[in-house]
UniProtKB/TrEMBL annotation:
SMART domains: Pumilio
Classification via Pfam families: PUF
GO MF terms held by the record: RNA binding
InterPro entries in alphabetical order: ARM-like, ARM-type_fold, PUM-HD, Pumilio_domain_protein, Pumilio_RNA-bd_rpt
Any single GO BP term: nuclear-transcribed mRNA catabolic process, deadenylation-dependent decay
Name used for this protein in its record: PUM-HD domain-containing protein
UniProt domain PUM-HD: residue ranges: 1-262
UniProt keyword annotations, A-Z: Repeat
UniProt keyword Repeat, yes or no: yes
Pumilio repeats by residue range: 27-66, 67-102, 103-140, 212-248
Amino acid sequence: KLDPLSLREMRKKLENEESVSLEQAESIASDCMDEIAELCSDYIGNTVIQKLFECCTEETKLEMLKKITPHLASIGIHKNGTWAAQKIIDFTNEPKQIQLIKEYIAPYIPLLLLDQYGNYVVQCCLVKQDNQYIFDAIVDKCWEIGQGRFGARAVRSILDNPTITQEQRVYVAASIVQNATLLTTNANGNLLLNWFLDSSQLPGRYRVLCPRLLPYLSKLCVNKLGSITVQKIIQQSEEPDAATLIMNSLSEKARSDLMTRK
């Protein structure tokens, strides 16, 4: 087992980019290989792994990945490991490497997004080819992710990321609409509703959202967060028919309540 002193020596060599040779980096990778997954979460070891992925050949990176990726999700939620995980993803370029990461990260996307460290690991995967699995996971667990403090903010960051396609943005937006009544009354989920209404610029968004809210309008209007969403729809001028629909529904509800009291 590599001790802290050995790891510090390795780090020192790797950090001296002017003098470290490819052969030396490869030799250090070989020395670390047996315990490389464990080193990713070590407070010194994680920095060594980061440097190895910067310095080593693609073949060596693939060999390291084969040992690391089965544990990548758990590494990604560790306070030290997350830095190694992010650097590993940043420095993987070959299709085989990316496929390995996808294979082991994909099942844990919702849990990673909900984690204070793990959500950054998922965001690193965005810039890699074939990132659709991230959006499939978000859509599948939209409410569960959206109600989380880190989950909602991570999804919003993903939606604002310029590397994603408009189709992916619309795909997630549709899921936000489907879960609108739950999201709009949740402090974290409301961030996604705000993105949908204020930032997405999707045409017809108010009109699409209205039918989801109408059955619960009376409850939303007496909820602090829900009432803000209703107010936004009423006050916007982009789609006046959506505002009219809400106002008419409120008027009908008020008339109905008056008749009931009589």
